Amino acid sequence: MDKKQVKRRIVLVPVPAQGHVTPIMQLGKALHSKGFSITVIQTQYNRVSSSQDFSDFQFLTIPGTLTDSDLKTLGALQFLMKLNEICEASFKHCLSQLLQEQGSGDDIACVIYDEYMYFSAAAPKEFQLPSVVFSTTNATAFVCRSVLAKVNADKFLIDMKDPEVQNSLFPGLDPLRYKDLPTSAFGTIEDIIKLYGEAVNTRTASAVIINSASCLESSSLSRLQLKLQVPVYPIGPLHIAASASSSLLEEDKSCIEWLNKQKPRTVIYISLGSLGRMETKDMLEMASGLSNSNQPFLWVIRPGSIPGSDWTESLPEEFSKLVSERGYIVKWAPQMEVLRNPAVGGFLSHCGWNSTLESIGEGVPMICRPITGDQKVNARYLESVWRIGVQLEGELVKETVERVVKRLIVDEEGADIRKRAIDLKEKVEASVRSGGSSCSSLHNFVNSLQTKSLCSFEIVPVQSQ
Ligand code: UDP
């Protein structure tokens, strides 16, 4: 087949959550720019719609809904596991229809599925199509997940009750401590062990694509490559390689006008991502600390993110007073634009991997307040490996909030952190430029599709630890 005349198709299967949709759509954009047609197969939940950025993409939705009672009672982990149970058959049906409809030269080059949409592995295997796992986190978190997938739940729970153990290094994962491991706030340890077991099992996948770069975690990437018997392609940060907007919520751009009125590098931007929540008590401590720091702040408070409240209406008058002095609140921000704004001096974040990469990509130092999962791994790396962040650990009290903001924005230490952040920004930018490691990695992946060297039939054994 003549490669040049053929526009082959890639099927993408996202997890229906912002932090997963964003990078897989960026991946789609990157592959589209390399000449592939893109089909996105989605579930009924949190669907991305065709926008200017994806006008050439095909969007298909598979049937399969959870009951109302499931939706009310299941935590995020069980929701994902249930979704995997109910979608396998409908995905197979959808893929078989696509195969029947495909015209000559529109053959499916591969199915790329989010590691948590593991139901997607069976259909390509049956139809002898290559499948590829897409990891929206980083190699370090992937390695941690494979470690956690094998721990004994009972023993781990006992260990974690001991503060001394919590603060000690986890064997073989230096500099991560027990408490930095990606356990989940959204489910039990048994659920997370089960889910990680499924996610790290690459089944019959021919490759793993990961939204990371060797300048960020070369030893974890090597370790992952050794562990998996298929090629690992680190092609990130994808938001720099192929920016594309896939926000599931409406962005409030009024905050950019507000930012434009602030002095350079003075504003603290606060966001806990698309799922993070905060108790009223913590909101008040945070507002007092920010206010006492004398720095302006832009705060994303998502509707529903304060337990028991639609938005901020349940917060006491004191909160509005503290915020009105020097703050600005939005329900959802155009985060990339915010981080790019010269007024932003620091990002107080839950350290989701996308937020982390976006902050690194703009050279913005971080205050790390991880909540769950890989956020704890990222926070530890931000503070002690890349040294471009400071952790806000323990109980949230106004004094520590004030101190950490001053450390980052006012103190000399902050200037050093900022310098390192700018250095890292330059390194990640170089990795996606022509000749850079991520750019070459993407090229190699595309090449493996074009030459059809990405094998579809080999059954890859899952390697034990
Ligand atoms: N985000 C945004 N506006 C906001 C808050 C978050 O656009 O007000 C985006 C952010 O840019 C990032 C994504 O939502 O791309 C959140 O992903 P992340 O991995 O950081 O965290 P998660 O939401 O998965 O916990």
From TrEMBL:
Q: What is its EC number?
A: 2.4.1.-
What's one GO MF term for it? quercetin 3-O-glucosyltransferase activity
Q: Which residues form the signal peptide?
A: none
What top-level branch of life does the organism fall under?
Answer: Eukaryota
> Where does the Glycosyltransferase N-terminal domain lie?
10-239
Alphabetized Pfam families for the sequence: Glyco_transf_N, UDPGT
Q: What's the family?
A: Belongs to the UDP-glycosyltransferase family.
The name on file for this protein is Glycosyltransferase
Source organism (scientific name): Eruca vesicaria subsp. sativa (Garden rocket)
